[in-house]
Amino acid sequence: MTITAALDDLIDRYLAAYQAAAVPLVTEANDAWQAPIYTAAVGSEDTVTWQPVRQQRALDFSDLMNALEEPFHPDFVAYFSRWFSADLAVDWESHPLWLLHLHGDDDAERMLANQAGHVLMKRRLKQPITLFLGLAEESDDLLITLDNENGAVGLEFVGQQQHEILAPSLEEFLRKSTPRVVANDEAIG
C-alpha cells in the first residue's frame, strides 16, 4: 500500500467513525484563512464544521528543502501533499494522538515555517533530523515525528531524539492507526 492509499483509507475510516457515532466534524477556524475545509459556522464564529478536501495542487516543499539544504523524506512530502483537513484524533496502541493536517494554503505556510524551525533546532542540537507529524495527547511537548533518514515514525519530546519507534514506516503507521471519535468540545483547541 502506498502512503497516499494509506492516508486515503485513514480519512475514509475517520469519516465513517464519526458518521457511525453521529458526531459532526468540528474544528476551530482561523477567520484570516481561506480554508476549503470549512463548511459552516457552529455556535461561535471561530468554530466550524469541516470536511476533508483533496488538494488541487500538491504542497511544494522545494523552496524550504533548498533553503535548508535538506531533502525531506518522500513519505513526509506525500503525507502533507494529499489532503486539506482538520487535525485527526487517532489511537496508536496505547497512545491517543493528534495527526496534524493543513486547513488550506495559509496553514501550509505556517507549517512550513514551523518545520524549518524544527529542522534548525535538530541541527543545533546535533541530533538526527526528524519532521513532525503531530502531537501526543498525553503531553504538549511530545511530538509524533518521522525520521528523515529512514522514515520511521516515533515519539520524541521537543529538543530530544526519538525515544520510541511506533512504526518502521509512515504507511504502516497510518494503516494501523485507529480513528478516535472525540466530543466536539475536545476537538476544539
Automatic annotation (TrEMBL):
One of its GO terms (cellular component) is cytoplasmic side of plasma membrane. It holds the Pfam family Syd. Keywords: Cell inner membrane, Cell membrane, Membrane. The keyword Cell inner membrane applies. The keyword Phosphoprotein does not apply. InterPro entries: Syd (IPR009948), Syd_sf (IPR038228). This is SecY-interacting protein Syd. It comes from Pseudidiomarina terrestris.
